UniProtKB/TrEMBL annotation:
<protein>
    <recommendedName>
        <fullName>Nudix hydrolase domain-containing protein</fullName>
    </recommendedName>
</protein>
<dbReference type="GO" id="GO:0010945">
    <property type="term" value="F:coenzyme A diphosphatase activity"/>
</dbReference>
<feature type="domain" description="Nudix hydrolase">
    <location>
        <begin position="27"/>
        <end position="181"/>
    </location>
</feature>
<dbReference type="InterPro" id="IPR015797">
    <property type="entry name" value="NUDIX_hydrolase-like_dom_sf"/>
</dbReference>
<dbReference type="InterPro" id="IPR045121">
    <property type="entry name" value="CoAse"/>
</dbReference>
<dbReference type="InterPro" id="IPR000086">
    <property type="entry name" value="NUDIX_hydrolase_dom"/>
</dbReference>
<dbReference type="Pfam" id="PF00293">
    <property type="entry name" value="NUDIX"/>
</dbReference>
Length: 210
C-alpha cells in the first residue's frame, strides 16, 4: 500500500531524520530546496468530495531555469538553489538564500526544515565537475506570492503524489558524444524533469516509501 502524500503525513514521516546543516568535503558546494505545501484552492472555492476526506496531496515547487550562456543547466526544470557563497554559514543557509533570491520565498519565515537528502554529485554531459549538491526538504506553513529573479523563467506548483507513484514516469532521449540514450525522467504537463533534479526527487520518493 502506497503512503499518503498529504503534507501532514509527509511531515510526520520525515520527523527525526538527519538534517545536517553542512558538508564534510573540500569539493565545491551547492544546495537546493525541495519545497512542499498543502494544496491551494482559489479564494471561495468549495472542497471536492475527495478533499472532504483528507487535506489533499502536497504540492512541490519546480522552476525552469532561464536560458543563460555558459550555464550547463540552462533551461532545465529544477529545484530552487545554487552555489554556496562565502557569506553562507552552511549549506542550509545556501538553500535558504538562493530560494529567497530566485523565487521570493523566505524559508525562515514561512517554512519548516523536514530533512536533508543525500548529496548528489554535479554532472555535466556525463562527467562529474567536482561539486556536490545538498538537497534540503521544507514544508511551507504559508505560501507567499512568488517573485521570480531573472535566473528563473517560470515556476509552478505540481501535485507530489502522481510524481511519487510513478504516474508521470517516462524517458528522455538524450544524445551524448554521438550516442543516443533513453534517460529516465518525469513529465510535468509538457515539461521534462530529468538529470540531477530527477535523481534528487527519486531520493525523496525513496525516503517517503521506506
Amino acid at each position: 500500500m502506497l503512503p499518503s502524500y498529504d503534507l501532514t503525513a509527509i511531515t510526520a514521516r520525515l520527523a527525526g531524520r538527519d538534517a545536517a546543516l553542512d558538508a564534510l568535503t573540500q569539493e565545491r558546494q551547492a544546495a537546493v530546496a525541495a519545497i512542499l505545501r498543502a494544496p491551494a484552492r482559489p479564494p471561495g472555492a468549495q472542497r471536492t468530495p475527495a478533499e472532504q476526506v483528507g487535506p489533499g496531496e502536497a504540492e512541490l515547487l519546480l522552476i525552469r531555469r532561464a536560458e543563460r550562456r555558459g550555464d550547463p543547466w540552462s533551461g532545465h526544470m529544477a529545484l530552487p538553489g545554487g552555489r554556496r557563497d562565502p557569506v553562507d554559514e552552511h549549506l542550509l543557509a545556501t538553500a535558504i538564500r538562493e530560494t529567497r533570491e530566485e523565487v521570493g520565498i523566505d524559508l525562515v519565515e514561512n517554512g519548516t526544515l523536514l530533512t536533508r537528502l543525500p548529496d548528489v554529485p554535479a554532472v555535466v554531459r556525463g562527467r562529474r565537475v567536482g561539486m556536490i549538491i545538498a538537497p534540503f526538504v521544507f514544508a511551507l506553513r504559508s505560501t507567499p506570492e512568488l517573485t521570480l529573479s531573472d535566473e528563473v523563467a517560470e515556476a509552478l506548483w505540481t501535485p507530489l503524489g502522481p510524481l511519487a507513484r510513478g504516474e508521470c514516469s517516462s524517458t528522455y532521449r538524450y544524445t551524448h558524444e554521438g550516442d543516443v540514450l533513453d534517460l529516465p525522467c518525469l513529465l510535468v504537463d509538457e515539461r521534462i524533469v530529468w538529470g540531477l533534479t530527477y535523481l534528487m526527487l527519486e531520493q525523496l520518493f525513496e525516503v517517503l516509501h521506506a
